[in-house]
Amino acid sequence: MEPPPQQTIELPDLAPFSLAVHREPDRYISWAIRNLGVWEPLETRLVCHVLERGDTFVDVGANLGWFAVMAAYCVGRDGAVFAIEPEPRNFDLLRHNLELNHLEQVVALRAAAGASEGAALLHRSADNLGDHRLYASPGVGDPIEVEQIRLDRILESVDRPLDLVKIDCQGAEPAVLEGLGQRLYEDQPMLILEFWPFGLEASGVGTARFFELLGTLEGELFVIDDQRDRLVRTDVADLHARSRAELAPAAGGHQDLFLLPSRYPIGKIRPLLVPSTARLDPNEERAG
Asked: For 268, which DSSP code?
């Protein structure tokens, strides 16, 4: 079998590394990496910025490993990365990329994370290999059976705190948070979450459960605003209003969110909060 095409990835503050990508027909993640050299630039900068040597990162919906590989270089050999991906082609490419980069600090699991354990059906997209879903809906088909796991079960032997958890799983985000159990509250990790009202409603979970879970977490909430290339403060009330407007299920819009727990100072993300050319109020600078 012909090996997958390979790209050299160059990101600020990281040495260049190699990454294999999907061939056609993927027209999103692999297309962007092949043609633009990066996937989700602001989210990529955020992950690289907040992760430190020795940290622990969990990537739910890891796909081919863009964030898992990058994070492994950020946390180093003393850190740990857990990459969760249920789709076989994606998982094979993820594992290939881990071997390509000799990343022994990454644990890859072929499974779907959720609130319960057992078999589940994964409905797959033909041309967007990051849009596989645990429910039937227009645009996906070709279902396959996958294993579903709870994150607290696979992490129960991990005696280090979770520092950053990224969850992008097409509407199953609340179930994944529930599956973290008490680790979500004891470790208080930073969170990157996709907020997609269409997927939340189609999955049967609903936006109300998403908001309910967010309300149990202490910290500041931000929109990862790609258009403005910065993090913008938001809250549950604002997201609720947007879920009835431009992010309404009928509109199909989505937004990536970042939660900075109360245990972290705002200074941890200040460079991403304002444009680099903006002048900060000196009092605000001291407060961070």
From this structure: G
Statement: residue 288 has pLDDT above 80: no
Q: Are 160 and 56 in contact (CB under 8 A)?
A: yes
**Number of other CB atoms surrounding residue 142 within 10 Å:** 10
Rounded Cα–Cα distance for residues 84 and 146 (Å): 12
Helices and strands (H, E) in the chain, number of each type: 12, 13
**Exposure on the CB side of residue 217, measured as CA atoms within 13 A:** 27
pLDDT tens digits for range 150-196: 999 999 999 999 999 999 999 999 999 999 999 999 999 999 999 99
Task: Pull the structure tokens for residue 28.
Answer: 């999103």
Distances (CA, A) of 88 to 20, 30, 149, 270: 15, 16, 16, 39
Which domains are seen in the chain, by residue range? 38-110+150-287 (3.40.50.150)
| pTM reported for the whole predicted model | 0.93
Name beta bridge partners: 106: 81
Task: Report whether pLDDT(252) > 90.
Answer: yes
